[in-house]
């Protein structure tokens, strides 16, 4: 009769959360920007602003340089998103009185808030396009998915 062998306990490993395919832990915000920029050829500027107190501070971005590196909450489309706690899909930026022009070529803008699991705003994904009404419901949904994934991974 064979003696039953005791199984060795499994090696305890740190379990990593499921990382999205686009996520690079060496550059979490940059990898999100690169992924979002690749979602549509109509995106001409994509960046992430981090919320620090009463200001949004520009992090990594792809596109032309901008002078808007620090935006007060409540100012422009980006600041309005935080102040109202709502994403902003602006099909025609000329319709907004408080629009902060980053480029004279920008016609539409999408701002999607990045929140942690508790709902606290950590920052936002900001996208500009040279095309009016560039952000379809499908595109907005895809960007919101990235924002949610990023929020779940974001370490403050």
Please give a structural write-up.
This protein is α+β, with helices and mostly antiparallel strands and 156 residues long. 23% of the residues lie in helices and 25% in strands. The protein has one domain (28-153): GAF domain (Beta-Lactamase). It is built from three helices and six strands. It has a six-stranded antiparallel β-sheet with strand order 3-2-1-6-5-4, sandwiched between helices. The longest helix is centred in the C-terminal third of the chain and has 17 residues, at 137-153.
- What is the CATH architecture term? 2-Layer Sandwich
| Sequence of strands across the biggest β-sheet | 3-2-1-6-5-4
Fourth CATH level, the homologous superfamily: GAF domain
Structural class: alpha+beta
Shape: globular
Describe how the helices and strands are arranged.
Blueprint (H helix, E strand, L loop, with lengths): L27 H10 L7 E8 L2 E8 L7 E3 L3 H9 L3 E3 L17 E8 L5 E9 L7 H17 L3
Antiparallel strand pairs: 1-2, 1-6, 2-3, 4-5, 5-6
Helix pairs in contact: 1-3
Labels describing this entry:
Beta-Lactamase; six-stranded antiparallel sheet; 156 residues; 3 helices; globular; single chain; 6 strands; alpha+beta
Could you provide a short overview of the structure?
This protein is α+β, with helices and mostly antiparallel strands.
